[in-house]
């Protein structure tokens, strides 16, 4: 009976593999519509919890950058399935942060403007966050959590069948191991992938991709050059991130020059 349960668990994980825009294999266990619903619910909850900015000049500025990045033709060049009508909210908060959610929702905290000091730098952040959505990272994260739970249940069944002692202690240890040894490295991989997608997106939208390097230099200063050690963080270190963005500048600059020639020149005014 227990072996049958394990078989059913494995069967539930089959047929869920997909490929990201950069060609990386992904595990997807939820439909696009399910993820849109999760994004919508999460966005509504955040809007209830966080004060929304009433500064018209700041909102117009951030909206200008977001509109340039969410042109359907640009997004569909990376993800042909993109049909979202993107919504933006600026939150009146000192947090140096932004996010994008499945379903086409973007949140920018006003504190981000302390680090993203120009339209190009702001585009680097918003482009990166949109990259998470284009690459279906939300689905991947939720699916991985689901798969991890299934895997732990499978191990739990096996330990029970073999009569292993201290089962609860072993399961607790495996839970920690799954969190540090499986979840976080994939998080870093997703962050790096979003950097790549965001760099392409901002360049094709007419924002100077060199600003992505300046942005992360600013981020390092805002954080005091500190932060968690990379092996325990879902984000690449500032230095590693800057090095990778620098390595990709030649190709990104070609996209940028092409966008400029095609008239893609966003004119977003930084508020006083």
| Percent range for β-strand residues | 5-15%
Q: Structural class from helices and strands?
A: mainly alpha
Assembly type? single chain
Q: What global shape is seen?
A: globular
The largest sheet, given as strand count, sense and whether it forms a barrel, is:
3 strands, mixed
DSSP helix fraction: 55-70%
The tally of domains stands at 1
Rg over alpha carbons: 21 Å
Uncertain stretches of 5 or more adjacent residues: 1-15, 164-186, 228-232
Summed up, the helix count is: 10
| Order of strands, widest sheet | 3-5-4
Q: Would you tell me the overall average pLDDT?
A: 80
Provide the succession of SSEs: HEEHHHEEEHHHHHH
- The count of DSSP E runs of length 2 or more, i.e. the number of strands, is 5
**N-to-C terminal Cα separation, in Å?**
69 Å
Can you walk me through this structure?
The radius of gyration is 21 Å and the shape is globular. It contains ten helices and five strands; from the N terminus they run αββαααβββαααααα. The strands form two sheets. The chain has a three-stranded mixed sheet with strand order 3-5-4. A two-stranded antiparallel sheet has the order 1-2. α5 packs across α7 (167-204), α6 packs antiparallel against α7 and α8 packs antiparallel against α9 (238-247). The chain is 61% helix and 7% strand. The chain has helices spanning 2-13, 32-49, 56-69, 72-78, 119-134, 137-162, 167-204, 211-222, 238-247, 249-261; strands spanning 17-19, 25-27, 87-91, 98-101, 105-109. A hairpin with a 3-residue loop joins β4 (98-101) and β5. It starts with a helix and ends in an 11-residue tail after the last helix. It is mainly α and 272 residues long. The longest helix has 38 residues, at 167-204. The protein has one domain.
């Amino acid at each position: 009976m227990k072996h049958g349960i394990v078989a059913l668990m494995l069967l539930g994980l089959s047929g869920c593999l997909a490929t990201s825009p950069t060609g990386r294999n992904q595990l997807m266990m939820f439909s696009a519509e399910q993820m849109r619903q999760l994004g919508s619910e999460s966005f509504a909850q955040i809007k209830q919890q966080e004060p929304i900015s009433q500064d018209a000049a700041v909102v117009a500025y951030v909206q200008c950058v977001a509109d340039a990045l969410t042109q359907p033709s640009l997004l569909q060049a990376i993800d042909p399935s993109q049909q979202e009508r993107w919504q933006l909210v600026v939150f009146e908060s000192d947090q140096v942060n932004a996010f994008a959610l499945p379903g086409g929702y973007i949140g920018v905290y006003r504190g981000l403007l302390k680090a993203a000091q120009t339209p190009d730098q702001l585009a680097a952040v918003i482009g990166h966050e949109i990259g998470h959505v284009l690459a279906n990272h939300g689905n991947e994260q939720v699916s991985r959590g689901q798969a991890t739970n299934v895997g732990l249940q499978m191990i739990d069944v096996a330990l029970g069948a073999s009569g292993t002692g201290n089962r609860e202690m072993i399961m607790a240890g495996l839970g920690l191991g799954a969190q540090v040894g499986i979840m976080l490295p994939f998080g870093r991989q997703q962050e790096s992938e979003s950097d790549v997608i965001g760099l392409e997106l901002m360049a094709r939208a007419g924002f100077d991709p060199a600003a992505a390097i300046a942005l992360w230099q600013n981020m390092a200063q805002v954080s005091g050059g500190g932060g968690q050690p990379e092996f325990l963080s879902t984000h690449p270190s500032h230095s590693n991130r800057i090095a990778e963005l620098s390595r990709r500048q030649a190709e990104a600059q070609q996209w940028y020059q092409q966008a400029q020639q095609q008239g893609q020149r966003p004119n977003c005014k930084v508020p006083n």
